[in-house]
Structures are given as structure tokens and as C-alpha cells.
Design brief:
Distance between the termini: 40 Å
Structural class: mainly beta
Helix content: under 10%
Shape: globular
Oligomer: single chain
Order of helices and strands: EEEEEEEEEEE
Number of strands: 11
Radius of gyration: 13 Å
Length: 126
Amino acid sequence: QVQLVESGGGLVQPGGSLRLSCTASGFTLDYYGIGWFRQAPGKEREGASCITNSDSSTVYADSVKGRFNIARDSAKNTVYLQMNSLKPEDTAVYYCAALPVLFNICVLKPTFFNVWGQGTQVTVSS
């Protein structure tokens, strides 16, 4: 069964850090571009970051550039999202998703991704 599972969310104070994990079962993440998306209450799902399957090139939304970092750990079949200098506006449910195997570029649009995790809540509040 093909599945993505996110973990690592929680409550953090403004300026703090969290590391989210996206672990796959049933397939090898290295063969797929992986994206991180987030959705706040009452808002549309938006892309935060993506890493390609070809050369591990990365893409970041302007809102997270310089604060978030996406990376692979092939041995653990996991993609991480390191989030630093967190702000209250980063509060959302965070999802990881996989692009179809033939995609070797990253496009931060949810419609391009065809396998999704269940999400993990991130709350930034004092």
C-alpha cells in the first residue's frame, strides 16, 4: 500500500523551530518529487517547498524562503522540512505529497501531486 505519513508537528513559540518528517511506505521516495503544503483554517492549501527526484533541486515559496529547508534522507526513505524562525502566520496543517514519477521538476501546485499524507498540525503561538 502506497502511503505517506507526516510527523513532527506541535506547538512552538514565535521564533522557534520544528522539523517535520514525511516517511513513505510502499514506495521509494527518491524516485519522486516531494512537496510540503500547508492549509490554515479558512484558507486554500498553499505550497511551501518541494524537492525534485532528479537532482534534488529545491523550490520555496517566498513566504518561507530563508527560514525553511527541505532535504532527503534516502536511508530512512524520508523527506524533512526544517522550519526555523517560525511566525504565527505559519500556523497550519502541513501535508507532504508526491508528484507522479515522470515529473522531474517541482511545481508548487496541489493539483500536480497525486499521493498525500494525512497532515500534521503546526501551531505557532506564545
